[in-house]
Amino acid sequence: LPVEVTIPLPTAPKATFRVAFSLAAVSGDAVELVGFAGMLIRITEVAIAKPSVSETVVLTKRRTADTGGTSTNATIAAMDSADAPTGVLKLYTAAPTAGTTAGDLGRCVVAATDVMIWDFTRPDTKPPTLRAANERFCINVDATGTLPGWVEWTEESQ
Description:
Blueprint: E1 15-25, E2 28-34, E3 39-49, E4 55-62, E5 70-73, E6 77-78, E7 88-94, E8 101-110, E9 115-119, E10 129-130, E11 136-141, E12 145-157
Antiparallel strand pairs: 1-6, 1-12, 2-7, 2-11, 3-9, 3-10, 3-12, 4-8, 4-11, 5-7
């Protein structure tokens, strides 16, 4: 008897975006990725690379937006120029009041000589995901200094 073999079709790659930053961070939320209604925003990678001073870096998911502070919207790089981002990434130079925390996803002390990369693409696990406009993914630091790094994420319709 013939044996039937089913081969799954490859899925199309998701729209992928990255923001590389180097900012004069203040103690508190330094980076805030803002969710968007009707979109799934999945964080795939976060890196902090040789901050100017030792930093305790906390990756936090929030249920509500940060308020106040001084921020600029970062320029978002699309991995494919045909893709347009819906997410917004804010870089803070004056600390905001933190929104409601849904939970801390990672905590690490990053020294001035360290590079720390959080890779959220392990098989059979879900990465941090923003499903609504009120959800946020934040990088929180405990010291004032230059904070270089990047955030990468994918976006798809819900």
